[in-house]
């Protein structure tokens, strides 16, 4: 007697893996990053661009470097995530320093285009602090 004919082997595929849920985008961090980049860019533009034969980096170098460092400090909350409160405090102090620079040197000659860029940079620095305040 011969064995009964068997059915061809069926290969059962495992079910497809469940799709992983998308990680939510941290909009506050994204907005803060955009504002920080704009603060730095506008500050450097306002200080480096020569207008009416005057360039801030040449005329008052120490103050221009101070303003650049204060603008760059707005990147601290993006890289120092272990302590958001301290990172916010660094950005807040930097905003105060940038506002002091603006009041001391920019406000007296507000009519130029470079000073408009610096005014906009200070305004965006304040906006960045308000955005970061929600994360402390």
Q: Your description of this structure?
A:
By secondary structure, the chain is mainly α. 63% of the residues lie in helices and 0% in strands. The protein has helices at residues 27-48, 56-59, 61-72, 76-79, 84-106, 113-133. The N and C termini lie far apart (83 Å).
Characteristics of this structure?
single chain; mainly alpha; 63% helix; elongated
Describe the secondary-structure layout:
Layout: H1 27-48, H2 56-59, H3 61-72, H4 76-79, H5 84-106, H6 113-133
Based on CA inertia axes, which overall geometry fits? elongated
Succession of helices and strands: HHHHHH
Overall strand count: 0
Which band does the percent of strand residues land in? under 5%
Number of helices: 6
Largest sheet: none
Mean pLDDT: 87
Secondary structural class: mainly alpha
Helix content: 55-70%
Evaluate the radius of gyration.
27 Å
How would you summarize what this structure contains?
This protein is mostly helical and 136 residues long. It has 6 helices and no strands.
